[in-house]
Amino acid sequence: MLETPHVILGATIASKITNPLISLPLVFLSHLLLDYIPHWNPNLGKEMRKLGKISRPSKLIILGDVILSLVVGFGIASRAWPSWEKAAVIIAASFLAVVVDVIEGFYYFLGVKHSFLLKLIKFQHRYQQKLPLGPGLLTQIVTILLSLYILRS
Question: Mean pLDDT across the stretch 113-120?
């Protein structure tokens, strides 16, 4: 799943469950849950096998998604101000919601081939449910809309 749905759900969880001892572990688990929902994202593993690198279109999609997720995550956190503590928890939750993908980025973008990274990537690919572009983006849009509805309620 793209980063933006992960961040929006993570920020929503942290906004609604204000105890970080509860919300932050839930946010981490939400990453695994969302990746289990059928979705679309660039197939970095396939590109690495076929091209030896990530394609330019995939890099642009990832860049746009990361920028959007940062803007949205900080935007949701700004709603908690003037409470710096609540805003910090929401920012931490936004990061924790994507930390698995950030860690994988060391392999895909920096060429780090540590055994932990290889095991993490294999684990991620084993349980992710992938769909073609149209239906796969639709599940992510629904995830975003549901998260925003919960955030506003």
Answer: 91
Extract the runs of DSSP E, i.e. beta strands, from the chain.
Answer: none
Amino acid at 81: W
At 97-110, the pLDDT tens digits run 999 999 999 999 99
Instruction: Give the Cα separation of 24 and 145 in Å (integer).
Output: 21
| 129 secondary structure, DSSP code | -
Measure the CA–CA gap between 122 and 141, rounded to whole angstroms: 26
Span between the terminal Cα atoms of the chain, in Å: 25
Query: 101: closest CA among 24, 41, 13?
Result: 41
Q: What is the dihedral of CA 128, 132, 134, 136, to 10 degrees?
A: -10
